Amino acid sequence: MPQTKVMLLWDLPTRIFHWALVVAVVAAFVTGQLGGNLMDWHGRIGLFILGLLAFRLFWGLFGSTYARFGQFFPSPVRLKAYLQGRWQGQGHNPLGALSVFALLGLLGFQAISGLASNDDIAFNGPLYALVSKELSNSLTGLHHRASNVLLALIGLHLLAIAFYVRIKKHNLLAPMLHGKKPGNPQDSAQGGGWPRFLFGLIFALAVVFAASGAWITPPPPTAAVETPSW
Description:
Blueprint: E1 6-8, H1 12-34, H2 39-62, H3 69-72, H4 76-83, H5 94-114, H6 133-166, H7 173-178, E2 180-182, H8 194-212
Antiparallel strand pairs: 1-2
Helix pairs in contact: 1-2, 2-5, 2-8, 5-6
């Protein structure tokens, strides 16, 4: 019996990013809904998500073949070909690519807007001091409303995965676990590599540091006012 040929579709950094983002988004929703003392963790998770997105931006430009944005960008020509059943390719199909870019964009908005948000009680985002209270309140409102849109997009994403698995008999999850799928080994992903991975990691850490507000000089302590003895 001939052995099935396989190709490398998703490199290790892409797979680590994907599953780390899944865990982080779930944790962000849980901590955000429970609130209270967990809001500090919500903020930390938001910074972690921002770092993941920064890495994905770098990897989308300099990573391996099928991780690069240019390889699966959903141009009108590609979308038309896919809807007409003429598209052939590996990785994200044009319709799936729309979902990917929408999710990444909305997650980016959530992470950035959260940096200057507040809960009017005890939590302020790490860059809260750089904006006015009015702008912070506006960003907080948008942050809350966009979370509902994000939930809807995630639901559609999961439904699409289930449709491909159950109806089209195309397992999208397995390659994201082990990186491989049936195909010509000559079509395997190329590029990326550990030096670029390290550069991407450094870029992500720099973005997290900038977003953390650790570089902001705290205001001087307010001098105590002595109370008259009479």
